[in-house]
Q: What sequence folds into this?
């Protein structure tokens, strides 16, 4: 176990930014189980975490594989009754390379995005600029039905969504695109259902002074405000956290919540690549892929302080056995533990490390890290890059981009 003091507010000490592709060994080995090892024939390289339905089935995406030459990517189901199955393969006009987590509604429909493909084939280097889609479950034993809800053109409407979408109680979808918008720095968008199964897109904000490249998804608070991150630029060049607040006239107001200052000698982190989570008190939690005390990334918290926000680094990764480069977001359990993954660090895989799963436990004045470190032989998976999912019994589910049979695994951990 690794211990670090809980830092004072805005503790600023010199740090070196280092966004390195790395990996991680085993402390929870007795509770770790591989549920599926991707073979590469129908699906490979899982690109998202998992979403669970009411029956306990898990759904996710792969960036490669499928029924159309193996390059379009897939959506898969993992069922305790029927096992693993590919329920949809992308071919191009319907999208290419799904990347982010799926969302699920009460009827069991799945919603997601693809980085490429769509109706505008000549856009985005002739690969298409991405889509938002819905996948509806079969009614009488038929196949799942895919519907493209929106194809990005690559202009002001955005292009190349890297994260999934978030579904509100009214059925609206919210998401981000890495590029596009007025300046090409990315967008925050809303898709609203209309009559006749139509959907309309509204760009809520085109990234400008508040950073560039929103790679992560969004989170919605109880007041209807959206929170997200940008990986890059911003006032201090290290990425940002932002808030969008709905107004009575239908517009949205942008607020810069926090600008990461790691390039200027701060320890607060560099490059948040994932979305945020909220606790019941309205505090925000997230990760940065670089920066921190040792340069290998951080876990941070943002708390409201009067009219502003205060950032605290809960943990700085040292880049060794404790992990490095947390690219994915976090999950919070009922007791206040934070769970996440690091793409690198741990043990094995040369100097990089093969990746880790971590838990951060709060106490009075410090946070304690527990780990699962992926072993170097790869049979349990390598290099997790997606967030974990937590079921009602406290079990954790996740994916790795490599390892197993060579092209990734789905795993379960019982803390």
A:
């Amino acid at each position: 176990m690794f211990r670090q003091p809980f830092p004072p507010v805005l503790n600023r000490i010199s740090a070196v930014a280092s966004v390195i592709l790395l990996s991680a060994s085993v402390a929870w080995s007795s509770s770790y189980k591989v549920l599926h090892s991707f073979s590469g024939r129908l699906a490979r390289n899982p690109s998202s975490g998992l979403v669970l339905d009411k029956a306990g089935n898990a759904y996710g995406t792969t960036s490669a594989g499928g029924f159309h030459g193996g390059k379009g990517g897939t959506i898969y189901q993992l069922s305790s009754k029927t096992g693993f199955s590919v329920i949809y393969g992308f071919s191009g006009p319907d999208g290419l390379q799904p990347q982010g987590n799926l969302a699920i509604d009460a009827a069991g429909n799945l919603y997601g995005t693809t980085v490429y493909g769509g109706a505008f084939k000549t856009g985005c280097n002739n690969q298409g600029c991405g889509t938002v889609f819905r996948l509806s479950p079969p009614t009488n034993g038929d196949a799942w039905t895919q519907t493209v809800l929106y194809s990005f053109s690559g202009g002001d409407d955005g292009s190349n969504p890297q994260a999934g979408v978030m579904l509100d109680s009214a059925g609206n979808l919210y998401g981000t695109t890495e590029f596009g918008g007025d300046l090409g720095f990315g967008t925050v968008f809303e898709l609203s259902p209309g009559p006749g199964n139509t959907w309309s897109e509204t760009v809520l904000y085109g990234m400008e002074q508040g950073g560039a490249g929103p790679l992560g998804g969004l989170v919605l608070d109880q007041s209807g405000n959206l929170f997200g991150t940008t990986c890059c630029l911003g006032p201090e060049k290290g990425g940002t956290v932002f808030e969008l607040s709905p107004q009575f006239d239908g517009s949205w107001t942008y607020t810069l919540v926090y600008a990461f200052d790691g390039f200027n000698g701060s320890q607060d982190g560099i490059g948040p690549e994932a979305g945020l989570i909220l606790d019941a008190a309205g505090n925000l939690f997230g990760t940065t892929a670089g920066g921190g005390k040792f340069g290998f990334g951080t876990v941070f918290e943002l708390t409201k302080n009067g009219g502003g926000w205060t950032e605290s680094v809960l943990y700085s990764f040292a880049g060794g056995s404790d992990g490095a480069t947390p690219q994915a977001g976090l999950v919070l359990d009922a007791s206040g533990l934070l769970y996440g993954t690091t793409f690198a660090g741990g043990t094995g895989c040369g100097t990089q490390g093969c990746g880790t799963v971590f838990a951060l436990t709060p106490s009075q004045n410090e946070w304690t890290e527990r780990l699962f470190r992926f072993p170097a032989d790869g049979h349990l998976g390598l290099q997790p890059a997606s967030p974990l999912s937590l079921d009602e019994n406290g079990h954790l589910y996740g994916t790795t981009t490599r390892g197993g049979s060579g092209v990734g695994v789905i795993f379960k951990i019982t803390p």
Remarks:
- The radius of gyration is 20 Å.
